[in-house]
Fold:
Amino acid sequence: MDKKKKQRYKLKNWSNYNQALINRGSLTLWFEESMIKQWHQPEKTGYRGSPMTYSDTAIQCALTLRELFKLPLRATQGCLLSLVQLLKLSIQIPHYSTLSRRQQTLEVRLPRSSSRTPRHLVVDSTGLKVYGEGEWKVRKHGASKRRTWRKLHIMVDAQTQEVVAVEMTANFVGDSEVLPDLLEQLDEHDQVASVAADGAYDTIQCHQAIRNKGADALIPPREGAVEWPSDEDGRTHPRTAIVQRCAEIGRKAWKQESGYHQRSLAETAMFRIKTLFSGQLKNRTFAAQMVEAYLRVGAMNKMTGLGMPESYSVS
Structure:
């Protein structure tokens, strides 16, 4: 029997994508003029004590550089000091202890582009290792009780491949519990056409959250799934329509017909996060770990905005 040949692809925008890859390392991309203008905290917090010297923008910029170039906190302070000296700027640089303290409460602003057309969203989750042990030690002595994971949940725009919503939870939290929270992170003016997710999201809570957004749920029903009751007005529940369609043409054909396979873009985004940064978290507290993960997603979004490969299949 002839083996099925592996599909080959070529890029049609190699020149632009190659330049985008080069620009990712440009310091002016991460330390830009607009950020410098917002560096110091212009307003008082209203609390007792001395006001904060640095804005959240400054702290996010510094910690993003730390994640991007995989620097310790002290080296991050040194990197910023050298940048300020080279650019001859009259701004102060936060002490590494300030970065460590402010990371605990920082609200990360996720950079993303606006969309005039309804978004087609894909959802998935992955694990990030905490207190990671070496593979040799695990094989030799087994994993210790302190070895644990965090779950990173992301929602990706299938067209732009940007992460539009992100959430981090403990490893025992189910994927379906997080989907409504991810949808709540979208802007009010964002229109959603569809949400694609795997069978773990086939719950009443997830389907209802997607319906509330006026979107189609592209979630394959579980094996042996039964039809859900009709709506109060007599209309067939969208999930029931999926069950009926799968019974007519089969699950594989339904996935191709509905466009479910675009969900793989979420897995691609997860792979990019772990490749660009790491599959491990450095910080010890949950709050700092959450900020660390969000900063990585934000940095990846900025890279995505520079340009992505456009491929076509080669027969």
The two ends are 20 Å apart (CA to CA). The CA atoms of residues 95 and 188 lie 38 Å apart.
